Amino acid sequence: MNQTSLIEPTVIQLSGLKKSFTQLRAVDGIDITINSGEVVALLGPNGAGKSTTIDLVFGLAHPTAGRARLFGGDPRDAIKVGRVGAMLQGGALLPGMTVSQAVTLVASVHKIRYPFQRHSTGRVAPRSQNSASASSLAVRCSARA
After folding, report:
1. How many CA atoms lie within 13 A of 129 on its CB side?
2. How many CB atoms lie within 10 A of CB 78?
3. Euclidean distance between the first and final Cα of the chain, in Å?
């Protein structure tokens, strides 16, 4: 079996997706299919429902109506097995957090444990033939933070 046969063509499918909060309708009937390899941006003013839609895609909220599918199934199932991930809206580190601590934190929430090694300096880097370059990258990122 080759790698391309392992890739599912439909990654995200939203059908008649709606989400209301009391009197506010945050998402009003989205229908979209996003296939493997496509890049999509959600654009709109504050309050347009972009973040709520993402919450629905990842199963962090339940739709009022309609359906969100991720890799053909329930979004929470795809997350449980580590098929998808998301990052915080702000790209900065939390105040007082080092790059090493951020990498350790993110790695700790994955069901599939990725091989990391801690250097004598306390830095964390992926285990690979390029560990030294990964470590120096973390140092460069830390210097910018």
Report:
1. 0
2. 20
3. 44
Nearest to 135 by CA among 96, 113, 103, 126: 126
**What pLDDT score does 114 carry?**
55
DSSP state of 2: -
Does the pTM surpass 0.85? The reply is no
The DSSP secondary-structure symbol of 109 reads T
Compute CA 12 distance to the chain's CA centroid, rounded to the nearest angstrom. Answer: 13
The overall average pLDDT reported for the chain is 75
| C-alpha span between 123 and 132 (Å, rounded) | 11
**131-144 vs 99-108: helix crossing angle, rounded to 10:** 120
What residues have CB less than 8 Å from 92, skipping those under 6 apart?
145
Cα–Cα dist 95/84, whole Å: 26
